[in-house]
């Protein structure tokens, strides 16, 4: 977490984060009774493990946001969370939507702009924050 403090302290007055919502609907807590198939029981157990994993990821992200916001406020800076919708698909130069899979690490738009995918996303997040 000290790396966050260094990043916040050395950056400009504004930090931006995507406002991620990784939580899912809670299950109703019911388990299949003995009459149901093993396949259904396995699926229910897998879903329960997935819900537990998502809860941990959500808690971790929320902790990161809270800590970054706290450190930024202490340094007299501001953190803005933005909607992540299309931040990885939109071209930061033209605004065109360029569909790509996660394995594609280079953003190439028909407007001629080519950039590393992560840099393009960072530019989109910053644009949303200052808009």
UniProtKB/TrEMBL annotation:
Residues 61-125 form the Cas12f1-like TNB domain. Keywords: DNA-binding. InterPro entries: Cas12f1-like_TNB (IPR010095). The keyword DNA-binding applies. GO terms for molecular function: DNA binding. This is Transposase. It comes from Polycladospora coralii. The lineage of its organism: Bacteria, Bacillati, Bacillota, Bacilli, Bacillales.
């Amino acid at each position: 977490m000290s790396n966050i403090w260094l990043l916040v302290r050395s950056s400009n007055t504004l930090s931006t984060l995507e406002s991620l919502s990784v939580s899912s609907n809670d299950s109703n807590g019911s388990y299949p009774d003995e009459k149901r198939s093993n396949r259904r029981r396995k699926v229910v157990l897998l879903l329960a493990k997935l819900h537990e994993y998502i809860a941990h990821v959500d808690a971790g992200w929320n902790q990161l946001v809270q800590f970054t916001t706290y450190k930024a406020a202490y340094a007299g800076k501001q953190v803005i969370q933005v909607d992540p919708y299309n931040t990885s698909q939109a071209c930061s130069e033209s605004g065109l939507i360029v569909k790509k899979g996660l394995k594609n690490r280079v953003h190439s738009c028909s407007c001629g702009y080519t950039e590393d995918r992560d840099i393009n996303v960072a530019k989109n997040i910053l644009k949303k924050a200052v808009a």
